[in-house]
Amino acid sequence: MRPPNKTPSSLISAAIINVVARIPPQKVATYGQIAALAGYPRHSRLVGRALGKTDRDVPWFRVINGTGRVSARGLDGNDDLQRMLLQADGVEFGEGGRIDLKVWGWRPEEE
């Protein structure tokens, strides 16, 4: 059995938000990628929670799911907003509303 994670959620959220703030225009990153870069691999759900709670002006719309799609958010309409913001950012959607991660995916190791 693994010991429980004793890192305060505010520190985890700050690490996640700091990574998201680095995503450049015309690039996207996945929830899993952000979690790993923040030091919390296999905790992609924490990324969504942190983005939903932050009051910092970060490019939240550049974070998509691992299949290259905008995650559905129900009736709040933010999935349509996210798609519009990505298109305005210059990101192109392919067939089925998918973003080609080989083309548009952020690779911080290449910066």
Write a short abstract of this structure.
This protein is mainly alpha-helical and 111 residues long. It contains five helices and two strands, in the order H-E-H-H-E-H-H.
Description of the molecule:
It comes from Amantichitinum ursilacus. The chain has one domain (9-102): Winged helix-like DNA-binding domain superfamily/Winged helix DNA-binding domain (Arc Repressor Mutant, subunit A, Orthogonal Bundle), CATH 1.10.10. It is 40% helix and 4% strand. It has helices spanning 9-20, 31-37, 44-53, 78-88, 101-104; strands spanning 29-30, 63-64. The chain has a two-stranded parallel ribbon with strand order 1-2. α1 crosses α3. The radius of gyration is 14 Å and the shape is globular. The model has no long low-confidence stretch (mean pLDDT 91).
Order of helices and strands: HEHHEHH
Give the percentage of residues in beta strands. Answer: under 5%
CATH topology: Arc Repressor Mutant, subunit A
CATH class: Mainly Alpha
How many DSSP helices? 5
**In CATH, what is the homologous superfamily?**
Winged helix-like DNA-binding domain superfamily/Winged helix DNA-binding domain
Q: Note poorly predicted spans.
A: none
Distance between the first and last residues' Cα: 38 Å
Q: Percent range for helical residues?
A: 25-40%
Number of strands: 2
Biggest sheet, open or closed, and with what strands and sense?
Answer: 2 strands, parallel
Tell me the number of structural domains: 1
Radius of gyration (CA) equals 14 Å
Given the C-alpha coordinates, what overall shape results? globular
